[in-house]
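Project outcomes to date are best conveyed with an example. Our students and postdoctoral researchers have been running inverse folding experiments weekly, and each run begins with a structure described purely in tokens. The record below, which covers 140 residues, was selected by the lab manager from last quarter's runs and is presented without edits.
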């Protein structure tokens, strides 16, 4: 009798729950602009029309229906072999950022918004193909 009761408790404790699938989304955004970027206290930010690109800037992930499913922030992320601000040539400057967003809810489509830039839409299949890593360059 005890074995039957124990088996019933184990079966009841293991069933009926749903598993929530989440993903960790990482990415980089390299800002390239014609005007010199701002450099302050070990970070840089865009100027003029790119002023929304800065350390701590919003990164928002929505599902295909427009519901916010995750949020993150841009982080200033120079490569170890470069200075905080990289002068690309006589006329262009670069400022590198990264983002990492944990526990992005599973969805058929993902709409990524960074600052006030136009939305970027990816299917789940595209995200899986990219290894849940989005690398972007913004500039003229």
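After processing, the design step wrote out the following sequence:
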């Amino acid at each position: 009798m005890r074995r039957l009761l124990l088996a019933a408790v184990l079966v009841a404790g293991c069933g009926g729950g749903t598993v929530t699938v989440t993903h960790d989304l990482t990415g980089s955004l390299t800002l390239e602009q014609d005007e010199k970027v701002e450099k302050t206290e070990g970070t840089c930010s865009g100027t003029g029309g790119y002023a929304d690109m800065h350390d701590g800037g919003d990164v928002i992930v929505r599902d295909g229906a427009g519901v916010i499913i995750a949020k993150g922030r841009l982080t200033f992320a120079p490569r170890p072999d470069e200075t905080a601000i990289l002068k690309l040539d006589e006329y262009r400057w670069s400022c590198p950022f990264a983002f990492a967003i944990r526990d992005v809810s599973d969805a058929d489509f993902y709409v990524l918004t960074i600052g006030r830039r136009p939305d970027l839409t990816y299917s789940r299949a595209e995200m899986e193909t990219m290894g849940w890593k989005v690398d972007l360059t913004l500039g003229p």
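The first helix runs from residue 2 to 14. Helices lie at 2-14, 124-129. The training component of this project remains on track.
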